[in-house]
Each structure stands twice: as C-alpha cells, then as structure tokens.
C-alpha cells in the first residue's frame, strides 16, 4: 500500500510536468532530475581578477560563475578559505545574474528576505559597492551558516537579521531599493540532491507553498520604495509557485521589467506576454542546472507614506583606542569603512549610518573585528583591514595546515598577524613566544 502511494505521487508529478512540457520532453526531464548536478562555484568579483578564473563558464552567470573541473572538492581548497569563491549550484546563480542585467545594484540598499545559506545575498552584495544589503533569515538555526558564508566572502556591507517579514514591513516600509525573495518552495529543483524527495512530493504542498509565497510577497511589496525592484525566485517548477506569483504581483500594480531576450535559459511558461517579458526558467534537461525560476518586477507609485527612521552613525576612527592602545595589525583609515559596537563586538561596516532598528535587531553588523568581552580578541572579520606590515607569507604546506586549524611556529614578535599564501590572506594568528595560535574560526576550517 505504501509503495502504491509513492508511485501515485510520482505519476501525479509526471502528469503535471507533462502538461508543461509534453510527453517526450517530460521523459527527458525525469531522467535529468535523477542525476546529480555538476559542481560549480561563483568567484568573488571583489577578490579575483578575471585572469584567475578557472573552469567552463556557467552560461547565465558569466564571467564569475564557473563549473568546477578539478579533482579535489571545492570545499577542500585553501582558495575557499581565502574567500576566492562561493560554492553554489549553477541554477541558484540565475536570479541575481538576471536581475543585474536590468538593475544597477551599485549604491542600492537591498534586502534579501530569506537569505540563508547566503548564495544570493553574497552575490548581490558584491555588486552593491557604496550601498549595503540586509540579509534576513527567519529560521534562527540557519543563521550560523549564513554569517559564516558572509564572513568567508570577506564582505563588510551586509547586516544580518532574523525577523519575520511582517515585522520588517511594519518597521521599514518603503525603505529598500531592491527586495530579493528567494521564496520557500516545494523544492522540485532539489530532487537530484534528495533521492526520496519525489516520493514525498504532493500537490497539497505545492498549494501550501504558493499561499505562503503570496503572503511573503505582500510584505516584500510594502518594504520597497516606489520605483524599487522586486526579484522573485524559486527552485521549483510548479506554475502556481512561479508564473502565477508574478501574475499576482502584476495584478497589484507592479510593472514587468523586460529581461534580455538572448539569455541562455528557458522562457517563462505563460500566455501572458508581460510575464514572459520579466520571467525566466532553468530546466535540468535543457540547461543542465538543477532547476530555477526568476521574475523581476518594479513597484509603481505607492499611496502609502514612506516611513521615517532614526539613524545610527558609525565611527570613522574606531578601534576606539581600546584599553588606551591601538592595534597595529589593523588599518583604520576612513576608506576602510565605519565602526559599530554592539554587545561587546566592534564591527567594520561599509556604510556611514544605518537605521537604529537594524543596529538593535541585527544579528551581525558588517564584519566582526574585535571581541571586547573576550579580552579584546581579534576576530576573523579583521582580515579585511589587515595592515601590510602584519601579513606573514607562508608556503603551501603551512597554508594548508593553517586552513585545517593547526598551530604554526613563526619568528615574529608577540602580537596579532595574518597568514597569507600566494597573495591570499587566509586569517589571523596570535603569536606568543614564536607560537602562533590559530584564530581561524572552526566553521571556516578545511575538513
């Protein structure tokens, strides 16, 4: 009886896809979702020159999206420790890549409403320059993965929060230039990663997810400035969770943003020309990714008043003469950003001011630099401010040992330093009597 139920669900899913693609193509699709997607990475555009990119390009995320062609796993490379790339399934790169072709992210204030584990948040943050991004994740147990991925990518222009979308909407209405909604979905694009997920699939769950997505998008609409952009994405194939959500936004007064017609991905599946203009899909049997959907729309004038906010200003000269002394291993020029203190943590943040609400509710502000509670200890975020005089180059064997969390022996005066290999700063150490205590956080170490 249980096996019959599993077969029935698979048959129902096949029928749904058959209505979208036709019988012949659905067979190709079903074969494709049973295969693992090829490994891929997205290189950090702030750290890696074009000449250092390796692997075949991901067609919809050029030039920084690349397929991983080395024998070793991407998570076991010193380059990963150094933040040179983010490990990201190729389909997941679509949303921000597509949006960046029609939105100038530079200088924008961006919200990623469901940010963990951080792929889209870090991808967008690399494009922002003088603006900043709020990476919000409601599920608190996912915050650690989000913050460590942000820290590994060496980004100081992200505020991490963990707030319900309706709370954000009540507090910061009309505040953001761009809102990214990578919506919780039925996850049909994850079948290749979860062998039994097809057996757990149900039309009831699709309907539940669609209703939840509609509620999230209502709050997202409130958070946008008039003229702001909403980037909506999923990793599922159900029209109820994709094109029909975009149709709902258009019915609420949003206007479609015309995505380039020559993007190497599939068109939306809709008879509505406006939906086809602003939406794209990835199918595993066509493009080779696990599967994705993106739609980009723009908010028109809104009769609701834009909120008024109290702002908190950071300090341009920070390390605030801690204990009456400065930290010679840290650069403190104004160009490096501004410094904020919360709960004993001094962080370096790219922007001169943020709403007081974000400072008070933020889980992490920018890049953590100094932990005052733990004897003014040096934190990993300080790698972005490493003074050239405090950087110590090592060989490959020592670099790999450091990345695994091992201690080193260095001929240096007592104090904090940064270990580097081939020009890549890996992280801090604290030297005492030539013994270099490894300060690389455990979640960032190679396994």
Mean pLDDT equals: 91
CATH overall fold name of the largest domain: Rossmann fold
Count all strands and give the number: 24
* Outline: globular
Helical percentage: 25-40%
**What Rg, in angstroms, do the CA atoms define?**
23 Å
Which blocks of ≥5 consecutive residues have pLDDT under 50?
320-325
**Domains, number:** 3
Describe this structure in words.
With 447 residues, the chain is of the alpha+beta class. It has three domains: 40-298, Rossmann fold (3-Layer(aba) Sandwich), CATH 3.40.50; 309-385; 389-447, Archaeosine Trna-guanine Transglycosylase, Chain: A, domain 4 (Roll), CATH 2.30.130. The protein is built from 13 helices and 24 strands. It has helices at 2-21, 23-33, 78-81, 94-100, 119-128, 143-152, 165-171, 197-200, 203-223, 243-251, 273-278, 356-361, 396-403, and strands at residues 40-43, 65-67, 85-87, 109-112, 132-136, 158-161, 176-182, 224-234, 255-256, 266-267, 279-282, 292-298, 311-313, 338-342, 345-349, 353-355, 364-365, 367-371, 377-378, 391-393, 408-409, 415-421, 424-432, 435-438. Strands 4, 5, 6, 7, 8, 9, 10, 11, 12 and 17 form a ten-stranded mixed β-sheet that branches. Strands 20-22-23-24-21 form a five-stranded mixed β-sheet. A four-stranded antiparallel β-sheet has the order 14-15-18-19, with no helix packed on it. α7 (165-171) packs parallel to α9. The longest helix is centred in the middle third of the chain and has 21 residues, at 203-223. It is globular. The two termini are 43 Å apart. Mean pLDDT is 91; it is low at 320-325.
